[in-house]
Design brief:
8 helices, 38% helix, 234 residues, 5-stranded parallel sheet, Arc Repressor Mutant, subunit A, Rossmann fold, 2 domains
Length: 234
């Protein structure tokens, strides 16, 4: 059955629970992750987070260590063990023993405050890929849906016919939607580390993609001058 007749089942947006007693931190992370397409809930401490975990069923929990009532280590200990739920500790405590303790208790990752937001997003996505690899088979961004299993792309309800290179380039941009992808990163991902051809190939294939996605005004695939390209997340 053709692509036009079968629309892939797009996974629901990943659910992220942010647990931190600093409202400024939870507000900042919530705003940023929502813009990146995640569903976000927050809790002010570990004790308040426990019923939310049952209700919200988060895919990833981002949690501070130093919190009242139930701290981050205690919360990690209670939540570790679910094979589909990732845990990322986000803490100002940066001693090696703090990181080791958190990872030993079952956290997938440990990021030290102050942190770069794009790095937090990248680590969340990395945890999702490890915990729920099936999510990476269907990518969605705005009206674009890419099915890695069938090597097919939809824009709205219309199929988009892409070459192998165009498909791989779009898949990488969609996987990192909202992030700036450096030219070298894209060349490595699509052409391989051994690529020694004309670097202008990337510009050529970006131009092909823009034409096929009706992106003549370059709003979807944005050029970041001197760095690379960014796929608008919405």
């Amino acid at each position: 059955m053709g692509l036009a007749a079968v629309r892939p089942d797009v996974p629901s947006p990943p659910r992220i629970l942010v647990v931190d007693d600093e409202a400024a931190i939870t507000d900042f992370i919530t705003l940023g992750l929502t813009r990146e397409g995640f569903l976000v809930r927050t809790a002010a401490d570990g004790q308040a987070a426990l019923p939310l975990v049952d209700e919200f069923q988060p895919d990833v929990v981002v949690l501070d260590v130093m919190m009242p009532r139930l701290d981050g280590y205690g919360l990690t200990r209670q939540l570790a063990g679910d094979p589909r739920r990732g845990l990322i500790i986000l803490s100002a405590r940066d001693e090696a023993q703090d990181r080791i303790r958190g990872l030993d208790l079952g956290a997938d990752d440990y990021l030290v405050k102050p942190f770069d937001f794009t790095e937090l997003v990248a680590r969340i996505r990395a945890v999702l890929r490890r915990r729920q690899p099936e999510r990476g088979l269907i990518l969605a961004c705005g009206d674009l849906v890419l099915d890695r299993r069938r090597r097919e792309v939809l824009r709205g309800d219309q199929p988009v016919v892409l070459s192998t290179r165009e498909f791989d380039l779009l898949a990488h941009l969609m996987e990192h939607a909202g992030e700036v992808c450096a030219r070298e990163q894209l060349l490595d991902a699509v052409w391989g580390y051994s690529f020694y051809g004309d670097a202008n190939n990337l510009e050529v294939y970006v131009r092909y993609l823009r034409l096929k996605l009706d992106d003549r005004e370059r709003r979807r695939i944005q050029t970041v001058r001197g760095v690379g390209y960014r796929l608008a997340p919405g």
